[in-house]
């Protein structure tokens, strides 16, 4: 029973780390805007492909994260501190958003595109720099454990579950945006932003502790 509890804990912690930064709720208004001219079937097809792309993008960084760090000579503490700063910055932008025009150039371009699944939906909306940093950080942490392969499999499953949650939320984006309204969406985005700041600060703390441990040794 202990390994079952440990497995569920690790799986849920992966989802909890990814979901606030992926934040499909904040992407809901954009989905409503750029899919306004699509039928329900076409919208579902685009969202399904976007979430599949998101899974493969993040899984690729999960597998290749260690290789990228080795090739660039990046240490685990350095990655944790840098990733924590990036995540915290994104969280601050979500918590204290700057006013932006409703129809900026990116949204106008997306509206005219036939395929919006890879960009802007999968990248950078769902699989952006913050989520990639989280996945690489999880990958490096898993490499330090005695159950390296199992931990990576659990992270991949966590990514898949997160992608499924994103698909469910984005499929209901039109109704969700209408029910929550602009204030509701902003409130959820601010809550997610605060959680991201907490996650980012914890990443930085873990990195500083690692650096202090290396300095002592």
SSE layout:
Layout: H1 2-22, H2 24-34, H3 40-72, H4 76-95, H5 105-112, H6 117-126, H7 129-143, H8 148-171, H9 173-216
Largest pleated sheet: none
Q: Give the CA-based shape.
A: globular
* Cα radius of gyration in angstroms: 18 Å
Order of helices and strands: HHHHHHHHH
By secondary-structure content and strand pairing, the structural class works out as: mainly alpha
What percent of the residues sit in helical stretches (DSSP H or I)? over 70%
Let me know the number of strands: 0
How would you state the average pLDDT, rounded?
79
Approximately how much beta-strand content do the residues carry? Answer: under 5%
Query: How far is the first residue's CA from the last residue's CA?
Result: 37 Å
The low-pLDDT segments are none
Number of helices: 9
Domain module count: 1
Task: Note down, in words, how this protein is organized.
- The chain is an all-alpha fold and 217 residues long.
- The chain has one domain (2-216).
- The chain contains nine helices and no strands.
- The chain has helices at 2-22, 24-34, 40-72, 76-95, 105-112, 117-126, 129-143, 148-171, 173-216.
- The longest helix has 44 residues, at 173-216.
- The N and C termini lie far apart (37 Å).
Which keywords apply here?
mainly alpha, 86% helix, 217 residues, single chain
Task: Summarize, please.
The chain has 217 residues and is mainly alpha-helical.
